[in-house]
Write a structure and sequence with these properties.
The chain is an alpha/beta fold and 392 residues long. The chain folds into two domains: 199 residues, Rossmann fold; 86 residues, no CATH class. Helix content is 36%, strand content 9%. The chain contains 14 helices and nine strands. Strand 1, helix 2 and strand 2 form a beta-alpha-beta unit. Helix 2 packs across helix 6 and helix 11 packs parallel to helix 13.
């Protein structure tokens, strides 16, 4: 439920930021190059100047591949006076949904000649051993002052999605502590995650608020957004995200806006041109005219799928059947989702779409019968996630 105030969202967020600085916690701003991290950075920078606490600490994990303009913008921020920028490289695997045989590609892959990378990182970038982004910044690597907390500051907004809205509502708004259960889940190598809090100063902003602030305040921003606007992409759909997963709908724009960059991308990540030409259809199962979706699931996710996908698809099928049977004697429907099974995933159509690419990061499924596909599976010696994997 919305609550209206006479204070505008910028002033409310600025007040939150100032109070957080005054409490004396160690504040580290998460930065991605997107519009929300732009707003959070500028807001926290202004608050740090107001309180007289500089430099402002900022951290970013370099993903190697983002839309042109993103890392150029990040370097401008890193070179700002009064900014201590932690530019980190994890060399983690990311997902290429267009390669079913091996869906992982490695950021700044040390097994490749650096000239084969999409770009080279700046000289001041540093390596981190953490594969999971949730473990990169923690009270061990960024120790807070005695008696204070590590405040990880993020551009998370309630209006982004229903899931984000509920998460923010449950956690109480702008600030959330690390619960014991979550701290234990994210714990690794003896880190005390209970000394960490998350700060979301613009949690109540809309997309319109973000762009209004960027315009009115004259803030610098990622010029990739200009290309999205030029190609008619609605502002709510403009996202700076890994191009092979959440960025699939924008590949066609990238193909037209940056043809030379895209040509290099298709060499680095074979198959992405399929996404530019066919959109989401390139990564979805195609049901033949005489097939049921159950038969399509068998053919596309098991019979014709790479071995690692087939194995997971068989486990997922049995798990879903058992889960559905726990509350219904009817079989799983072909298209209509069971209203009792959470998330509308209990239909053969939904199951085929969810498992067509094996769901290695478990973005589509919540199956407890298997977990993430560890980096070790596709490349010996690369270890395990040690936490929840994410794309950026």
């Amino acid at each position: 439920m919305k609550a209206y105030s006479s204070t505008n969202v910028y002033d409310a967020a600025f007040s939150r930021a100032v109070n957080m600085f005054k409490e004396g916690h160690r504040i580290v701003v998460a930065f991605s190059g997107g519009k929300d991290s732009t707003a959070v950075f500028e807001l926290m920078y202004a608050a740090a100047v107001y309180v007289g606490i500089l430099p402002l600490e900022v951290w970013m994990r370099d993903e190697e591949i983002m839309y042109p303009g993103t890392y150029e913008y990040a370097e401008r921020i890193a070179n700002r006076k009064g900014v201590k920028f932690h530019w980190l490289i994890a060399g983690e695997p990311e997902v290429n949904v267009f390669n079913r045989e091996n869906p992982y590609w490695w950021v700044f892959d040390d097994r490749l000649d650096p000239d084969q990378w999409m770009r080279k990182p700046p000289e001041f970038a540093k390596r981190t051993k953490e594969l999971s982004i949730y473990n990169v910044v923690n009270p061990t690597s960024f120790p807070p002052p005695p008696g204070k907390l590590l405040c990880v500051t993020m551009g998370v907004r309630a209006s982004e999605s229903r899931k984000r809205n509920m998460m923010i509502h449950r956690s109480g708004g702008a600030v959330s502590g690390m619960t014991s259960s979550k701290a234990k889940t994210w714990e690794a190598d003896g880190r005390n995650r209970e000394k960490e809090i998350h700060f979301r100063p613009i949690y109540d902003w809309t997309t319109k608020d973000v762009w209004f602030a960027i315009k009115e305040k004259g803030w610098d921003y990622n010029k990739a957004y200009d290309a999205f606007t030029l190609y008619g992409v609605k502002r709510e759909q403009q996202r700076i995200a890994p191009v092979t997963v959440k960025g699939v709908p924008l590949l066609k724009v990238a193909y037209g806006a940056w043809p030379e960059w895209f040509q290099r991308l298709n060499v680095r990540l074979p198959g992405v041109i399929l996404g530019a030409k066919y959109g989401k259809k390139a990564v979805m199962p195609i049901r033949r005219h005489y097939e049921t979706w159950q038969e399509c699931y068998q053919r596309t996710c098991i019979d014709e799928a790479p071995a690692w996908i087939a194995e997971r698809a068989e486990v997922y099928r049995e798990w879903m059947i058992k889960r559905h049977a726990a509350h219904s004697t009817d079989p799983i429907m072909d298209i209509a989702a069971c209203p009792t099974c959470a998330g509308g995933k209990a239909s053969w159509k939904a199951m085929a779409e969810n498992m067509y690419n094996g769901d290695p990061f478990m973005l589509q499924t919540d199956c407890t019968a298997f977990g993430y596909v560890e980096p070790e599976f596709f490349r010996k010696g690369m270890g395990v996630w040690g936490g929840k994997p994410t794309m950026g």
